[in-house]
Design brief:
about 220 residues, Metallo-beta-lactamase, Chain A, seven-stranded mixed sheet, 15 strands, about 25% helix
Length: about 220
């Protein structure tokens, strides 16, 4: 958990592929935005209940099955509206089929409530998530940026980048998205990835081997 004056970030590692599900808590309002509920819906709801929060929104960085596995139960049990980029709607709809390819059972998510695009602002009480379209891992990948935090999904990790060998992947687009949308943020911006530990813009500009020749 990290803390700000009014916002706290809780992370849960969920599902068989160990996805980071983030609960962004607005402390005064007792509300939460859930980012990438990839599985273990009961555990996510339990943590939300333990914290005494109400789900305000469900934000998806992209539509891969391991990031959307608990969307159905969260949408059913809360008033949180599902947000995703239009280029990944069809991918999200095939979550069950994607899971079966890995021998996993994943319920198909409901249709999204809100389609987001580059430059959009998603309000959260008195705060705002800015949407950056950051394709490459999938065509509809987005990052959600709030102040000194960026929730980047499978775009970039600590010391690595997201896969681009899956359907819809584009290595050049991913590298361009990192350089043009993420590395332009202040160096102390915390990057919250879809897997693994958090990092910062400055650290990845200095040490990520995929940008060794300069970001």
């Amino acid at each position: 958990m990290s803390e700000g004056q009014a916002v706290r970030v809780h992370v849960m590692e969920v599902g068989p592929l160990a996805v980071n599900c983030y609960l962004v808590e607005h402390v005064p309002a007792r509300k939460a935005v859930v980012i990438d509920p990839g599985g273990d819906g009961g555990a996510i709801l339990g943590e939300i209940g333990r914290l005494g929060l109400a789900v305000d929104k469900i934000l998806l960085t992209h539509g891969h099955f391991d990031h959307v596995g608990a969307v159905a139960i969260l949408r059913e049990k809360s008033e949180g509206r599902v947000h995703i980029h239009p280029n990944d709607v069809e991918r999200m709809k095939t979550a069950r089929g994607q899971g079966l390819m890995f021998g996993l059972s994943v319920p198909d998510p409901p249709p999204p409530d809100v389609l987001v695009g580059d430059g959009d602002a998603v309000t959260f009480e008195d705060r705002v998530f800015l949407v950056a379209h950051t394709p490459g891992h999938t065509p509809g990948c987005v990052s959600y940026i709030m102040e000194q935090m960026a929730f980047v999904g499978d775009l970039i990790f600590a010391g690595s980048i997201g896969r681009t060998d899956l359907p819809g992947g584009d290595h050049d687009a991913l590298i361009r998205a990192v350089r043009e949308k993420i590395f332009v943020l202040p160096d102390d911006t915390v990057l919250f990835p879809g897997h693994g530990s958090a990092t910062t813009v400055g650290e990845e500009k200095r040490s990520n081997p995929f940008f060794a020749e300069g970001w």
